[in-house]
Structures are given as C-alpha cells and as structure tokens.
Amino acid sequence: MMMKKAIVLLVWMLITPLVCPAADVPVWVEATGEAWLGDFDTAREVRDRSRRDAESRAIEKAVGVFIRSHTLVSNSQVADDLIYAAVRGKIVEEKVVSADWDPEERSLYRTTISARVEPVYPEKGEGLSADLFLSQTELKEGDPVQLFYQVSRDAYVYIFSIAADGSVTLLLPNAAMPDNFTPAGKACRFPPEDSAIALTAMFLPGHKGDTAEEKIKLVATRGKEDLLSLGFKEGAFQAYDQNSTGMISDLVRRLNRLEPVDWTEASAVYRLKR
C-alpha cells in the first residue's frame, strides 16, 4: 500500500542552549575496584588489577557526571547536546583512600580511590564522518526542502528535524524507508526522487515574526544500533513532543556506549522568511 504524501513542518526557532560550565571542567569522584586472587597470581598483580578496576569505574562515574551536568531539559537540545554523548574521561590526579583484602573473602582485594577526572572529546576527523547539506539556505514559506548527505564509511543514518515548540521529528528511517543503511561515499538525497514523501518549509501555526532559523540533525553509526524505539506508523513519521525528554536522554546514553570513532553527527541550518 502506497504511503500518502506526508508534509512535515521543519521549523527551528533560535533557541539559546542551556550550557552548564560544569560539564567542561574536571570533577572529583570516588570509586572502588576489585580483583580476585587466582591460583597463579601474585599479590602484586591482584593489587594492580584492583586499582585499574577502580580507575575504570572512576572514569565511568565521571562521564555520567559530565553528561548530567549538561542538563537535557527538552528535545530541542538534540541539536547541541549530542556532542556530550562522545565525552570520555581521563584521570589527571588520584589518591588511594583504602586498599586491603576483604576480611571475609581472603582472595578478594579492594581498592578505593579518589580521582580527578577531566572530560576528553574526540578530535574532528577521527573515525566516521558525515556531511549534510540543504538544497537552499534561504527559503520562503512553502518552498520544498531537500537534504543531501554522505558518510565516509558504511553507516546507519538517522535524520531529525526540530521544531520551535521543542518537538523532534525522526525523518529517517520512516515507515516508507525503514532501511537506513548508507554505503560509504554515496551521495544521498532525502526525500529520494519519486518518493511519496515531501518536506516543506513552513512556520508553525501561531508563529510571530517574519523569519525563523531551521536546523536538521544527522546521526550516523558504523554498526546497526537500536538507538530508538521507532514503532513506525504507516503514512507518518515518528514524532516526539516537547515532554518526551526521555527520548533524547536515552539517545545520549546509547551513543555514549559506543566508541567515539564509531558514530558521528552533523547539522545543517537555513533561514525561513515569509
């Protein structure tokens, strides 16, 4: 059954992102690591493994702090907040709080450290990269919108539009195009030629003013990832309203589990005039 022509309002009002400076400064965290004594282990090897485990847990704990301190208050921040999903941590200072064998399990060694961890972001150009362009950067209300994108390696592509009311619409994949695999280097267009889908630049009902800045966000992953619970409906894109903050928080958490070189994001902006 052919999908009916769907019109999507792609409107982005100029919104100032709520950036919390605490997300970009080192934090102190405390973590405990464990290691078991094997038949062929030395005591020193067990102590070293215990400390490395504590360091790993401290970094994981700090990364959670970095993400939470950049508060995700609405889905509209998907355009700016996904960079925080790539954050990793590096210990720059640490102190041993305690280190000893468990009093009951004599083969178990525990080390608790207090560590100062700073955020680290991947350098641009590492791993997967993506380019995203729009057909025009200056549009009038009612003009058609076309997206053009390309990935440097085979990837699975997700494309979002974000409205002024904080709602997010997932454009790709969709009910008519559930397969979002994109070959490396292939110049892709959305909507594709001869597609039943059409994108039209329009102001949201009730918008005051003669201009608006619109933005499209692309996320690409090297492997097939269950980033979202899509639940497509025939003839419609998947939309999340301004109260669906869990969608973006879940997306950030899932991306944070991937290595930074295994995913990337890109944005494209244009200005809409009456």
TrEMBL record:
Pfam family, one: DUF4384
Keyword Signal: yes
InterPro entries noted in UniProt: DUF4384
Residues in DUF4384 domain copies: 139-222
Signal peptide (UniProt feature, chain positions): 1-22
Keywords: Signal
Tree of life domain: Bacteria
PANTHER family: S-LAYER-LIKE PROTEIN (PTHR36194:SF1)
Protein name listed in UniProt: DUF4384 domain-containing protein
